[in-house]
Structures are given as C-alpha cells and as structure tokens.
Design brief:
The complex is a heterodimer.
Chain A (H helix, E strand, L loop, with lengths): L3 E6 L5 E2 L14 E5 L6 H9 L29 E3 L1 H7 L3 E6 L9 H14 L4 E5 L3 H13 L2 E7 L4 H8 L4 E5 L3 H14 L3 E2 L5 H6 L2 H10 L7 E5 L4 H16 L8 E7 L4 H8 L24 H10 L3 E5 L1 H15 L5 H15 L8 E6 L23 H8 L7
Parallel strand pairs in A: 5-13, 6-7, 6-9, 7-8, 10-11, 10-13, 11-12
Antiparallel strand pairs in A: 1-2, 1-3, 4-5
Chain B lengths: L1 E5 L13 E5 L4 H11 L3 H5 E2 L2 E2 L3 E5 L2 E2 L15 E6 L5
Parallel strand pairs in B: 1-7
Antiparallel strand pairs in B: 1-2, 3-4, 5-6, 5-7
The chains are: A alpha/beta, B alpha+beta.
C-alpha cells in the first residue's frame, strides 16, 4: 500500500502530521503530501494496478491512505480516445482526448472529491464543504450524499443554471454567494477557521489535490505505460495542471514509465488569464484579475497554484495561453464535430488552445498529444445556444424536401 | 482612529491565540502591519520577505484584495477591517 509519510511545505519543506491542515505556519506556503516510494517494486506495483478496481483506487499506492478506503461513488477510468479527425483538421499527427466528463458527476472533480471525502471520513469529519465554480459543487454534493455526510456547497450566485440544478438535486445545503469565485474562496477560507468542517479545497486541499494525479496515471496506463509528448490542459487554480505532471514524475521515479516529462501547455480564458499573463510577462507570480468570461469553471482570478503552473510550463518547454470567448465557442464545436465529445466551456478553452498551438506551428507532426477535457457540455448549454440551425418541418415528405432543400428521390 | 485586523488560525501561535486585534494611528496597510510586527514577535518573518508580503499571503481591506488597490500603500480609515488570509485555498 501507499508509502504516505507526512504533509510538507512546498516552499520551506517543513513537515506536518497527516491532519486537516493546508498552510505552513512558518512561511504560509502550501502543504502537500510527501511519500517514500523507495520500497516500491515497479513490477509489483504494475500488477496491482492492472488487477485493481475500475476506479482511481487502482492507483492506491500513490494516494494518501495507509488502508484503501471504501467509497460509495467510484470515480475515474474514463476513456482516452484517439482523435484522428481532430488531428487531421489541425494538421497534427497524433491527438488523444482524455474525456474526463465521463465521471459520475461529469467532470474531473469526482477524482479529487473521492480522495478528499475518504480523508474527511478517516479524520472523523461529519460535515463537508467547498468553494466551487460549479463542477466541484456537483461532485461534493453527490459524493456527500452517497457517503451519508452533511454538505455545504458555496458557489458564486451567477453560476450557470445547469450547475445549480445538478448540485441542489443531491440534497446539499446550497449557498449562492453574491460575489465572484475569489469572494467565495475568501469566505470559505475564513469559515474553515471557524467551523470544524472539512472544506475539501481549503483545509483538506493537500489530499484533495492528490486526486488529480490519477488523471495523469490513467493517461500513462492507457497509452501502455508510456507518457505522451505533450499535454494540453486547462488552468484555473493550476492544481490539476501541476498534479498531472506530479503523477508522471512519480511514475518515472518508481520506474513505471521511462519516457521524458511531456511538454505542458496550460489553457486559460482571455477573460480570466492571470497565469497566461504572468507567463507572457516573464513573471514568477500572478497578479490577480477580476474574471469576466463564459468559462466560469476556470474563472479563478487569484490562482493558488499559479506560481507552480508557471514553473511547470517553463520547465517542460511549454506555454500558458489564453483564448477569447468566441474561440472558446468555436473550440467546443471543433471538438464536438471531430470527436463526438461535447464539452463544457473549459473544454472549449482547451480545444481552442490546441488549435492555436497547432496554428502557431509549435507542435510537430511526430508528437503524441493529449488534450485534457475536464467537463461535460450539458453543464454550459448557453455556450452553444444559437450556434447552429434547427430545421423545423411539417410531418410530410414534401415539407422535409422543401425545408432542407433536398431534391426529390424517386423510389 | 482604529483599524480592526482579523488574524487567521495559522498565525495565532504568535498572537497568543488572538483571532482579532486593533491597530491605532495607522493610515496605510503597511503601517497596520508594522504595528502588528512590533506587537507580535515572530509575525514579520512568517508573512513578509524583503519588505514585501510573501507570495502566498492575501491581505484584504473591507473584502477587497490590496493588489487591486494600492498594495501595501492602500489607505485605511477609521473602522476599516483588514483581513490576513492564506492564498493557497481553492480551485
């Protein structure tokens, strides 16, 4: 089982016990989980993975538990789809779509919530909570319902209706905050100080973030224990982006894969692009912004892992780019029309960024590229409303031919 | 002239457990923080580095991030509430 050791500050390396804490008391840096993988035999680990459950728990060796927890709602093991038509459209050689919309609540957040809730139960919490741009709200409400935990879910009041409905249905305490996500996050950071609750992305964030590594593990396993050459991934807080890389690095360390770390391209919406702006300007930290974009699930103006996302993009030879709202809508259509995958606005950002990189000639034809699609198009229906024509006809053969402008077929 | 300051859990070991305090005679956030540094031994090195705030520290005046205002030179007025919070949550 996992070689989990302690929590450790990413900045000054101070260690802390494995409890509900997320900030270093010495330097205010973020804490993350530290493991000792030196006792793991790669052949044995590979066998355990391949014989493991069809969920993120097949990677239990790399998750922060000594005993594999029981969870009520299984997340992970989503399809990796070879997207030849998309590749052809963009003039690329080999593109794969990791469709993480195929999770229980239709986004990658099921991964992180599975881990966070298992930790919340292990630590004895009875109430779970989160600050969310929508997808996390869906996941926390659903997984809490399945686990029989009380939940409080805080979202910006102007969230898409689909995400509000797909959260409230699980019987959570849904709190719509009059403010943007950064206001919600500030409120929850304060509340986490006051209440003995497990805020999955505040006081349990070090564990929660570990769930995102499983997306990287799956990509590598589904490619036959090889790493791709390039990963294009959305960036909101920067946690998913950096944890996919961490997952790859852990597998390199253990010897499960031998390929080089891929190039990491981050994708942001122009209306909320603090990381892309800092990348462009050559800065090491992000200046916060006030979000104004249709990609609400990426609308974090003050990204917690911004400095680490910048560091990864630079270290791997990648970039952090931004795209306009129109490019996002076009990205949703591009992916849908070439792969059959209907993604939400965040996926539109990612697909549009891939198109942009391809157009700039940054991707060579011999590269194997993975596009990380994090959420379902049914969550942001407004983004495609009015983007195509519906042919309304009378229920007659004549009307059909006339309205569609098709010639009559003689039988 | 007095400003209220909210102290997060992670700093209460140096404030003797206090979660809220007041600073008098300060006109900017910098002066508020200087007042706290004078009062609480060990606070300055935790949240500041080379005269600036560490990169994972957020400071708000009345709910607004000081990076949207005048950073450490942001003015404070009588009755304002200054909040110090970790910047490593969310997402």
């Amino acid at each position: 089982m996992a070689a989990v050791e302690a929590l450790q500050c990413k900045e000054c390396r101070t260690s802390y016990p494995l409890e509900a804490r997320y900030v270093c008391e010495h330097c205010f840096g973020p804490l993350e989980v530290r493991y000792d993988f030196s006792g793991l035999d790669s052949a044995e680990v590979k066998r355990r993975i391949q014989a493991g459950p069809q969920s993120i728990w097949r990677y239990a060796d790399f998750l922060p538990f000594e005993q594999q927890p029981r969870t009520a709602l299984a997340a992970g093991v989503t399809p990796l789809i070879r997207a030849d038509r998309l590749a052809e459209r963009l003039g690329l050689g080999e593109v794969w779509v990791k469709n993480d919309a195929a999770n229980p609540t239709h986004s990658f957040k099921d991964r992180v919530v599975t881990v966070a809730l298992a930790k919340a139960r292990e630590l004895g919490f009875e109430v779970v909570a989160c600050a969310s741009t929508g997808n996390l709200a869906n996941a926390v409400a659903a997984h809490a319902a399945a686990a029989g935990l009380e939940s409080y879910v805080f979202v910006p009041a102007d969230l898409e209706e689909q995400k509000i409905l797909a959260t409230g249905v699980y019987g959570t305490n849904l709190v719509a905050v009059r403010g943007n996500y950064d206001d919600v996050n500030r409120l929850c950071t304060g509340l986490a100080d006051e209440r003995d609750w497990a805020f999955v992305n505040v006081n349990l964030r070090p564990y929660y973030a570990e769930g995102s590594k499983t997306l990287g593990f799956e990509i590598a396993e589904q490619l036959g224990f090889e790493l791709p050459d390039r990963v294009v991934c959305p960036v909101a807080s920067g946690s998913l982006f950096t944890k996919i890389a961490r997952g790859f690095e852990e597998w390199r360390e253990v010897g499960l894969v031998s390929s080089e770390l891929p190039v990491f391209n981050g994708a942001q919406a122009g209306g909320c692009s603090p990381v892309a702006q800092a990348f462009e300007a050559g800065h090491e930290v992000c200046r916060p912004v006030k979000p104004d974009t249709i990609a609400k699930s990426l609308a974090i103006g003050n990204p917690a892992d911004g400095p680490y996302a910048l560091e990864l993009a630079r270290r791997s030879g990648g970039t952090v780019d931004s795209v306009t709202d129109d490019e996002i809508r076009a990205g949703i259509r591009l992916l849908a029309e070439t792969t059959g995958v209907f993604t939400e606005t965040a996926g539109g950002v990612t697909a549009a960024t891939l198109a942009k990189l391809a157009e700039r000639g940054e991707i060579s034809r011999d590269e194997r590229v993975v596009l990380v699609i994090t959420g379902d198009g049914l969550k942001t229906l407004d983004a495609v409303r009015g983007s195509f024509e519906t042919h309304e006809i009378d229920p007659t053969v004549e009307s059909f031919g006339e309205v569609l402008g098709l010639e009559t077929v003689s039988s | 002239m007095s400003v209220t300051v909210k102290i997060p859990t992670q700093l209460r070991s140096v404030t003797g457990g206090e979660s809220e305090t007041t600073v008098d005679e300060a006109t900017t956030v910098r002066e508020v923080l200087d007042g706290l540094y004078e009062r609480y031994d060990g606070l300055q090195e935790r949240i500041s580095e080379d005269g600036d705030l560490r990169r994972f520290v957020n400071v708000y005046v009345g709910g607004d991030d000081i990076r949207f205002l005048d950073q450490l030179d942001t003015a404070v007025n009588d009755g304002d509430e200054v909040t110090i919070l970790p910047a490593v949550a969310g997402g």
